[in-house]
């Protein structure tokens, strides 16, 4: 056993979050470092979903909208996510995809900002859908999009800025951006912030209330483990809710949905972010998946996440042949999410071989290896093994240099 | 046994679709006439969903996007629905809610129609979400909404009409509208048709290709039995696809989703209607639910549906005290969907009592009893029993007249 492997074993033995791994189906022994793309399966999901299908749908049928709490599940599950993103109850609703929620939030932000502000600042390095959706929101509200590097975002906003679409953690590099700083600069300029939390929700403390973030959206299938394509969430800061003017005013966000009124009258609260009938099977699978978070201290989660990524970077430096990989992920803790991205020539072939040898990360074109460290179930031993096998693969697979 | 009960037994014995009922979990013997709101549970769903959760998500994890066909499921399941709505493969995609799909379709229709057409005609009797979404689409594209009674729709469209949002079957009355006639009038006027198929998909033959319907959306949790809030579908006529300009351009409809290109370049085909990551658990539950449709002849389905609703109307006339209920559903077959709506003073209390006695329909304010007849699993005996118990309830519950 190498020194690093021994250190990993010691650290796992002392990890207060280690018992949570047993709540996930990881029985195949995989080194699963792709929870930043699709979270592992919490064991609670399958039995709960079977009960929802067989009893709530199969037997109670339509009565479940009331009796099983289906109708209010988007807000109830939203509050559970609220705790994980630092939002007090009543501000988060679950449903639709992240893209659709970003569209709602951006259009609503522009409308909040009023007619005199004609530009939307968009993180130039964001996940592409953010830019596509922002362009559509701008086109449909008569605004223009200005792409800005995240580091320049706070300085870039001014009297013409309606809203800033900011990424909390970069999907490609794992870089954590300064959401509190940008929010504060935006507010000083009279603009609104829309935060994309896809790569931070469930990965680190976010503090939406603490920092006064206006609007936010994020997915639930990465660090929140809701299942493939599970419904996304939308956060609407409480004091903005009465003026939240959705571009997607479906019957589910009506003040009296069963009144079937011909004119739209928006509901109070986070329900204003709803649109159509909620997707109950996926929503309740997510609900079950969230059980594992009960009692988890987000400070401990963050500490473990940073320790894991620190340790992985050390192991990679020790095991990888000189110069074959370069970290794209910042060394500074304040700038790091819960993933490590390594630039590596021939990354596609390297990742394919890693997967064949039981280490699952993913590859992002053109040359990035991504390794996500979900602190609920990743072990220090996983980090050591992944780096060790990466070193072996790099020795076996010729580099392009 | 009454004559009507005997007739019901004879008709069930001669019903070629009768064996399909065994594919549903209706073991509790309920008279379930609410399949126009939430379809009954097909037995294939629970085992398939368990496999998706435990094996595809739990074991294959991220590999399932390719290996289990998750990525292309929206189009594959879309084609299965295509057969049921009369659309050749490649024109239907599954995802999002009906409301969201109507928004995409309406904005796309307005853009297809060009800048000189400034009005959207909307069925004044449609399910409210249609009107809310149309108002938003109009607001965001600088058009205006004109509400029109369905019967006047064909005559109302003219040179300023960009699009017509038409309801195929009215959710309240069960009236079937003339979709082919309206489509043909719209096309003659140079306008586009967006059809809401929520209450016709899986209830009767629709013939989207035959009638050249431009765009359509509908839900899958009623007659298609996809489960509570299962993802909706969007139909984009093949020749319009290259010009379909979505207001919700998410990464899933990009020509090269994993290229992560900063500029949006729409995919070819029905995939252009996609937005964010598809909701796999609900989508594959729907996929399993659709198995029951394999080999079902839609002409036979329609014949049974009309026979069931005819028979229920006869039974209700025979059993209900004089003048206590009035049918809102047209007597003419050409104007009837697969539900019967009865106006009844005190309908709320009457339906509550019906449910207590094992007959499940639903109540729509202010005074409507709705009974849906899903031809895949409803029996003539159900129709007779429902009408008989309705007669008893009306005898026991004093009318407000």
Question: What this model shows, in words?
Answer:
2 copies of one chain form a homodimer. With 401 residues, chain A is α/β, with parallel strands linked by helices. Chain A folds into 2 domains: 3-17 and 297-396, Aspartate Aminotransferase, domain 1 (Alpha-Beta Complex), CATH 3.90.1150.10; 47-293, Aspartate Aminotransferase, domain 2 (3-Layer(aba) Sandwich). Helix content of chain A is 38%, strand content 13%. Chain A has helices at residues 3-13, 45-60, 64-67, 73-85, 98-113, 128-141, 153-156, 179-188, 208-211, 280-289, 298-319, 347-356, 380-396; strands spanning 31-32, 92-94, 119-123, 144-148, 161-167, 192-196, 215-218, 233-236, 326-327, 339-343, 359-360, 362-364, 368-372. Chain A has a 7-stranded mixed β-sheet, with helices on both faces. In chain A, α1 (3-13) packs antiparallel against α13 (380-396), α2 runs antiparallel to α10 (280-289) and α5 packs across α6. The radius of gyration of chain A is 22 Å and the shape is globular. The mean pLDDT of chain A is 96. The interface between A and B is large, with 82 and 83 residues.
């Amino acid at each position: 056993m190498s020194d690093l492997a021994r250190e990993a074993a010691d650290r796992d033995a002392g990890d207060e979050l280690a018992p949570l791994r047993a709540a996930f189906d990881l029985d195949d022994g995989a080194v699963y470092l792709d929870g930043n793309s699709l979270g592992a399966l919490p064991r609670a999901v399958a039995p709960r979903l079977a009960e929802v299908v067989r009893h709530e749908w199969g037997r109670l049928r339509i009565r479940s909208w009331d009796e099983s709490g289906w109708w209010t599940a988007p807000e109830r599950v939203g509050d559970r996510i609220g705790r994980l993103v630092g939002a007090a109850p009543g501000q988060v609703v679950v449903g639709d995809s992240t893209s659709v929620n970003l569209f709602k939030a951006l259009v609503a932000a522009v409308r909040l900002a009023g007619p005199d502000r004609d530009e939307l600042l968009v993180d130039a390095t964001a996940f592409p859908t953010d830019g596509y959706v922002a362009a559509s929101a701008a086109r449909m509200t008569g605004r223009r999009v200005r792409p800005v590097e995240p580091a320049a975002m706070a300085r870039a906003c001014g009297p013409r800025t309606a809203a800033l679409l900011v990424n909390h953690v970069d999907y490609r590099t794992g870089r954590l951006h300064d959401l509190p700083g940008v929010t504060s600069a935006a507010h000083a300029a009279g603009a609104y912030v829309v935060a994309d939390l896809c790569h931070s929700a469930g990965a680190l403390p976010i503090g939406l209330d603490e920092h006064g973030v206006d609007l936010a959206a994020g997915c639930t299938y990465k660090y929140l483990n809701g299942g493939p394509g599970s419904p996304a969430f939308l956060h609407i800061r409480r004091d903005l809710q009465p003026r939240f003017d959705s571009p997607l005013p479906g019957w589910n966000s009506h003040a009296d949905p069963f009144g079937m009124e011909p004119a739209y009258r928006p509901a109070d609260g986070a329900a204003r972010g709803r649109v159509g009938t909620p997707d109950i099977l996926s929503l309740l699978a997510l609900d079950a998946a969230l059980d594992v978070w009960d009692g988890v201290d987000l400070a401990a989660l963050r500490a473990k996440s940073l320790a894991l990524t620190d340790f992985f970077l050390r192991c990679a430096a020790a095991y990888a042949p000189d110069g074959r990989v370069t970290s794209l992920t910042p060394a500074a803790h304040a700038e790091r999410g819960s993933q490590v991205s390594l630039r590596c020539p021939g990354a596609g072939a390297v990742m394919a071989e890693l997967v064949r040898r039981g280490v699952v990360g993913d590859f992002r074109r053109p040359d990035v290896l991504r390794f996500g460290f979900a602190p609920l179930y990743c072990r220090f031993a996983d980090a050591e093994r992944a780096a060790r096998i990466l070193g072996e693969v790099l020795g076996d697979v010729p580099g392009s240099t």
